[in-house]
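> @MW can you paste both from yesterday?
MW: sure, first one:
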Amino acid sequence: MIEVYTELHQMGLAHSAELWQDDRLMAGLYFVSLGHAVFGESMFTSVRDGSKMALSLLVSTCLRHKVPVIDCQQNTAHLASLGAHEISRCQFLHIISQAQRESTIPWPEQHLYWDELLNL
């Protein structure tokens, strides 16, 4: 599986949002992006609320670039507490088909956009 995501990363399709302290990776998440269609894959943390901060980075960038949805794949209590909710399959397919036609977001150039989060 690592090889697949490495290849997707080399193709510019798989990305990560990371939280570092000194030279230590503390939390992060990885995702796949096709145009403006964003598919969250997995989160991890070794510090309290670290994955929430990594998700904040992704959400703020998606807000900045008007990404319509982040596919989080599962409806968990944790993700629901962060604002995730279910949509119908038909609605999902329509949104994703439109979003993937949009231009690619320059993910390596992105950072945490506090103003986007404060405007929620």
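MW: second:
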Amino acid sequence: MITEAILKINPNAEVSVIGSDINTCEINWLNGTTPISKADIKAQFSAVEFDMVMQDLRFKRNNLLAQTDYLALSDQTMTAEMTAYRQALRDITNGLTTVEEVEAVVFPEKPEA
């Protein structure tokens, strides 16, 4: 998470991190990368955690959509229920702003094809 927090502050940073605890880790700034304070890095942890849970949610959502993609082909007629299900999946990330909201997401139930 430390490296991800650093890259959130400076996407071009070149760095190596030894250890996983921000208080005791060793951070080596490479190729002239301007060092960032550990306090500033730590301040990004909640944003990094949110990005990680959103990435996981999108991965699960995309897999569920992929399972029904064949129904969206031009030679198929999708039911209204399936159309609504797929739209609910696409909208599932809308308005989420906290890790707790993401973790509380309940996926819609897949209708019969």
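> thanks! The chain has two domains: 2-42, 46-103.
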